[in-house]
Amino acid sequence: MSQYTSALNSSDPSIPSRLSDDEQRTLLRQLRSEIIERHRPHISEGAGPIRVMARIVAELEQTCRQHNIDDQIIRAEVVNRTIGDIDLRQAVECEGEEGGPEDYRILADELGIALPGEELYHYTATGETYYWLRDQMLECERLLLSQGFDPRVYDIYGIGNPVLRGWLAQEMGRWGIEVTHQNVHLSLGAMDGIDNVLRGVAHIYRTRQVEQVGILFPEPGFGVPEWQALSYGYQIHRYKTSAEHRFKLTGAQLEQILAEHPDIHVFYLTITNNPTAFAYSQAELEDLHAVLGSFRAKGREILMLADLAYIGTGKPEEDQARMATFINPEVLQHTIFVSSFSKTHTLTGERFGWVTCGDPNIAAGIAVSWSNGLAALPGEWQLRFMAYYRLLQTRPWLGEKLRRFYRLRRTQLVKQLQEINEELHLFEQIYIDDDATVYNWSKLNEGIDAFALFEKTGIAGVPGSGFGYDDEYIRFSIGVIPIIRGDL
């Protein structure tokens, strides 16, 4: 048995590898091809393409380590750009003075994610924010108790404490959305919020004896709400947008869809899109609102479920203009907003989300989904949510710094893809985003798909089918893996 074959067949991590760097790379690429071949037929099964691609990467990394391939080679040959989470513990970028506003290595410490004394990239966390958040949790619990709300006992309404809900109503107020705590329900992230809304709205229509409720999903788009809506009995209507309109639904298209499908009563719209990273402009949103208003004027009720997951990642003045289109009372009354700190502030694991209904009667009607689902929201989680809200209010520069960080990573990713394309000619179009979200959306050349790109470059993205679209398109995340200049 050759030395190479022996290493290939060995799964004992205690046996040191005797392979050279070139031999390790050859072995890794062979393992990568084998895993791709094994998973390719199952890309659309089970958890869907996003998680399948992420699982392929995790399995490949584990297999490489079992064969004693050096971590440095693994990092160079296996680049996970599937899941959109931002891991600040892995941030290495420092564009200016150490400890300054362009030093992104310290964001984990500044946001209280890093543990006191934790070693980051050439930086030891102070833990100042980590401890500050815990002090704030104590203060917030005392505040709640002083107002007659005990987060440690059963909450019969299940929608969260009124103090935090009031703060989040004020948060919506900065966009010009004037509501009270009665319009706001807490949720365990945006996905939980969407799930509760869809279940609650379905309940409202059932009480009105409406037998079939249709929901419209423009595509490409975030796929989880489609699965949620299907599980609650909605009639799913999908509309494939085009590159001509930057993958956004136009007013004329919406008008035609609603005319052809009178059962549509819910319209799900991600204002800044995942996966495309393109955002609806003020004028584009006003066109959609006008169409919806014309159908409502004829007696047809249509709710917009507006996903704001990435509002806050773009240019503030442009986000403000987008949100201003919802201030009109007629628009606001028929809108349900879903918000989260997951992507805007890299707090994905914390699951801080909330739902805002323009109409307090709708808020009351869908509350049944909370009380009969979660029963009560975790008390400790609510206290941490309150502490983080205070942190972001007292240190607004954190949001500005994160936006600059996202812009840096997106710019570097596009540059890397362009350099790869000059050599390998894998892309027909590498799209430039609207300076928002944590993604890049690009079109592959004919004959290339996500698997082929992964095999040729080691970069794992998510095929367009993961978002209800064509597999000639691919989405990359700027999340966990940084791009270091000079290392492309």
UniProtKB/TrEMBL annotation:
Coiled-coil features, chain-numbered ranges: 403-430
Region (Disordered): 1-23
Lineage top rank: taxon: Bacteria
CDD domains: AAT_like
Record key words, sorted: Aminotransferase, Coiled coil, Pyridoxal phosphate, Transferase
Alphabetical list of InterPro entries matching this protein: Aminotransferase_I/II_large, AspAT/PAT-like, PyrdxlP-dep_Trfase, PyrdxlP-dep_Trfase_major, PyrdxlP-dep_Trfase_small
Alphabetized SUPFAM superfamilies for the sequence: PLP-dependent transferases
Segments forming domain Aminotransferase class I/classII large: 212-478
Keyword Hydrolase found: no
Compositionally biased residues, Polar residues: 1-14
Pfam families: Aminotran_1_2 (PF00155)
Names of the cofactor(s): pyridoxal 5'-phosphate
The keyword Oxidoreductase appears for this protein: no
Family assignment from sequence similarity: Belongs to the class-I pyridoxal-phosphate-dependent aminotransferase family.
Protein name as it appears in the record: Aminotransferase class I/classII large domain-containing protein
Organism (species): Dictyobacter halimunensis
